[in-house]
Amino acid sequence: MIKNYEKFASVYDAIMDDLLYDKWTDFSLHHLPKKKDAKLLELACGTGIQSIRFKQAGFDVTGLDLSQDMLDIATKRAKSANLSIPFVQGNMLDLSSIGTFDYVTCYSDSICYMQDEVEVGDVFKQVYDHLNEGGVFIFDAHSTYQIDEVFPGYSHHENAEDFAMVWDSFEDEAPHSIVHELTFFIQDEDGRFTRYDEVHEERTYEILTYDILLEQAGFKNFKVYSDFEDKEPGEESKRWFFVCEK
């Protein structure tokens, strides 16, 4: 059990490349229709950095995440930016209590954390049912190339004054799946370092599988792009972006 999750999450934020949030924001603004006071739901909003970017861009934003600890940090972050953003604890597999929206986003490969394609399809159906007519759903996912060729054997070590991190990735059993093993050493207020271990399992699918699941959920019109740009996916594209219209 992580006792000081705020400290732990601040390490996540520290190792996250801020440029990615710029890229997600730019891609979204390019593909979401201009609409005054459009209601936007950010799924898997984490510590709220992207939600704040969307709010500053003029959207009426709601953030949803599974982790209340993450949402507590997001709430503090929004408050210190003098922004009012409702952050809701919930699971994207069940959006029944959250209302409807003009736009829904799900970034940082969060869809890859679903257990299997059944859950991915369930998320798509939930999103479809909670989008207004003409609404847009944008999500990104790791490409099969990224999962199969880039991640296996990946190792990243980071050292700072108050934390150290070891990140190793291994091929998992299911097709196009990966296990990330993360070990953090975080300095407490008394100067001692405490170890925290986390395991993250991700899985992706062929583009055709995502297409079929989107169609089954009700989406008739969607396009696939790659690596934050308006270009078709290639053999070595690392991140796919799906822009889906209701």
Automatic annotation (TrEMBL):
SUPFAM superfamilies xrefs: S-adenosyl-L-methionine-dependent methyltransferases (SSF53335)
Record keywords, A-Z: Methyltransferase, Transferase
Domain of life (superkingdom): Bacteria
GO molecular function: methyltransferase activity
Domain Methyltransferase: 41-135
Protein name, entry field: Methyltransferase
Cited InterPro entries: Methyltransf_25, SAM-dependent_MTases_sf
Pfam families on file: Methyltransf_25
Native organism: Streptococcus varani
GO biological process per UniProt: methylation
